[in-house]
Specification:
By secondary structure, the protein is of the alpha+beta class. It contains one helix and ten strands; from the N terminus they run E-E-E-E-E-E-E-E-E-E-H. Strands 3, 4, 5, 6, 7, 8 and 9 form a seven-stranded antiparallel beta sheet that branches. Strand 3 and strand 4 form a beta hairpin. The longest helix has 38 residues. It starts with 30 loop residues before the first strand and ends with a helix. The relative contact order is 0.14. The N terminus is likely disordered.
């Protein structure tokens, strides 16, 4: 992938460049591909096979263990008639990320046994791109596996406080109701 520029923007998206700006071009730095929903890494540019801008797909020869390969084989009856494939999803959030073709007609052999990932559900991160980056606001950082435990602990504490407040409110309501009944 070194020295390759990939612009996977459609004509309609040219005005909104944030929507699918994918791989910063002409870089020799490795790129990590992430699930767009939960940000788990799903692959990297060392496994780069190619891309198809018309289909908004990238092709990788290997992916991380964060990709779940469905066991059920499906038959395509649409545009790629005659193809047998399995679905690829994120093991963290179950977002459907793409397909892996098991059997293809001759003209689609280049897709066989590679991971075809939809650009719409993949984000990228260029390693080394933060060397001169500004400080990221702690409140805007995404939740990742490393911080997930902390977030869950804070949620549990909040739930405990909320339950105590509900109990106290119930006592106050009972007292108000009893005072109204006496009067």
């Amino acid at each position: 992938m070194a020295g390759v520029t990939v612009d996977l923007l459609t004509d309609d998206e040219a005005d909104n460049r944030d929507s699918c700006t994918f791989i910063s071009g002409d870089t020799d730095l490795p790129v990590v591909f992430l699930c767009s929903q939960c940000r788990l890494p799903v692959g990297d540019s060392l496994a780069w096979v190619g891309a198809n801008p018309k289909e908004n797909m990238i092709y990788l020869s290997s992916v991380t263990k964060n990709i779940h390969v469905d066991k059920e084989q499906k038959i395509d009856t649409g545009d790629e008639s005659g193809c047998i494939y399995v679905l690829l999803s994120c093991s963290g959030c179950s977002l459907l990320l793409g397909r892996m073709y098991i059997c293809t007609p001759v003209h689609l052999d280049f897709k066989r046994n590679i991971y075809c990932l939809a650009v719409a559900y993949i984000e990228s991160y260029v390693l080394g791109s933060t060397i001169n980056a500004e400080f990221v606001d702690e409140r805007k950082k995404p939740v990742v596996l490393e911080t997930q435990v902390e977030v869950l602990e804070e949620l549990a504490k909040s739930q405990t406080v909320l339950n105590l407040m509900i109990a106290r409110l119930a006592v106050v309501e009972e007292k108000i109701e009893s005072l109204q009944n006496e009067g």
